[in-house]
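#struct-queue
[09:14] JT: dropping the first one here, sequence first, then the structure tokens:
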Amino acid sequence: MVSLRSPSTLPIVGVLVDGKTYRHLLYLLLAVPVGFIYSTLFSFGFLFGVVFSVVLVGLVLLVATLLGARIAAGFERWLANRLLGTDLDRYDDVPADAGGAVANVRKYVDAASTWRGVGFLSLKFFVTVLAFVPLFALANGLPLVVAPLRYPYVVNFGESNGEPVTWAIETLPEALLAVPVGIVGVLAALHITNLVAYVCRRMATALLGEPTADDGASKNSAGTGGPAPTDSALAAGSAPTDPASAHDEPEDDEPEDDEPEDEAPTGAESVAPEADEFIPADAVDPESDDGSDRGEDRS
């Protein structure tokens, strides 16, 4: 039977038909405007909050910034679950009811999840900078792929030392040459997109939440190499057997030797002494001819 291989598993070119690639690309497209919004709002909130912390306005601004960071971290967690393939749930480190307005504010300030969210939003700015690389390559590669349909035209790659970097495509051979160049640029852009998305996924897993219970159970079953034993199997007392343990038990197929050992002969059945051995007279049996003869010879 011939097994059909998914096109998304093909090396190098599989990213073109992989749906995850385009979800990652959408995540980076959203990261550019959202990252600048985070950078502007939270930089303003923390800076002016620290400056005016000597008065009540600064403290209120700092608290509002922290609460806003928690809301933004929740949005980023939702976004990572939808576009990056994570399965995260929010941290359960905030008490349900602390009693009083000051205590309720303090529980959010003391929660470690609040500062993890602030750390993620701070790193989000660098993700925004990295997102420009694949987006720039994709924006310049796609026009080259369709160059035979729109030549003559001039491709602008940006500026270098104040001079524009352009490529004037005026003939059909030049347009055909631009096609493989554009394909290479598109493939490189998509691979970089997946790489940046992988970094973002690791950041989200470390800072935005913890895996859900179902995800953890599936990882445990995958790590043991099979499904976990059911409750009925455990109640019956059955346990998985280890093939290797069968070889550790010694095999005892030979029957045990129950025959008693030969006892040493005693009395009359004792072995006769050698001729050169000295025997006392009182130890010789008078009824034995050999013993009497042997006694007479020695006397």
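[09:21] JT: and here's the second one, same format:
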Amino acid sequence: MKIKTQLLFPFLLLPAIFFAQIKEDLFKLPSYGRIVLVGDGLVERMNEHGYFETLLHAANRNNKLVIRNLGWSGDELGMNFRRPGYGDTDTYLNEIKPDLILAFVGGNESYHQQNGIGAFEKNLENFVENLKKIETRNSEPPKIILVSPIAHEDISRLPVNVSQANNWIEKYTEVIRSVAQSKDLSFVDLYYPTKEKFEQSEEEFTINGIHLSSAGYKTLSGILEKELALKKHEYEKNEAEGLRKLINKKNKEFFFYWRPVNAEYIVGIRKEPFGVITFPPEIKQIGILVEQLDQQIWESK
């Protein structure tokens, strides 16, 4: 059971830099605007819920958005465990040619504490410069938003030093904020809003302190909507749920497209003699199915 803390003016305890730093024209995207989410497990598990993506579509009803999730659990800046030729983020970013990239960083890295914070700052600066080189459909580099980790939720039955974990998440969040400022990028702080939400509610929003539940992702989508200043559009409950289910279906198929099951037969030692013949056309068909689901999403908005 969580202990609920009452604060009369909780915002007075937060630093003045609590609010997101978002450029006004961030969501002025071209027709068929392309948005990509990159990051660790926080992003990958969005595929299972679809709340945030539903809000993105709702805020851009007149734009046929193409949204792709390239989250990979366990990823850190400068350390992505991949078989060569499989699930390479840069390859798919260049294939998608995004207009806008939301980069969720710092969650896994914060566990390195003091030993990793210097390397994290340098890796983040290099990461940003690399994102700026990603191909787009015009001569401009993609717009980039850096997003901080969420707070660690205090669940009393779990033997975790939550105060220490949050202390380091906060420090890594400030590094992200600093790099965003130095690179003239938009920044969203999820640490303070989620920490406040976790502390002020008796409801649990994670399954283990760090991985959000469905309720947690629904709450996070509302925080992102506010911090990104997304336009609100009221859907009927059934209409919104239908859109969300379509989005989840599309995301599942795209997951199979960019991370097809059994990579050993696609890029590994078993790709010869049949994998090189069988799998490329099958993966292409999955890509076509993803595009068809995009069309259904646009029609349902």
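[09:30] RK: nice, looked through the second one.
[09:31] RK: The two ends are 40 Å apart (CA to CA).
[09:31] JT: good to know. The longest strand covers residues 34-38.
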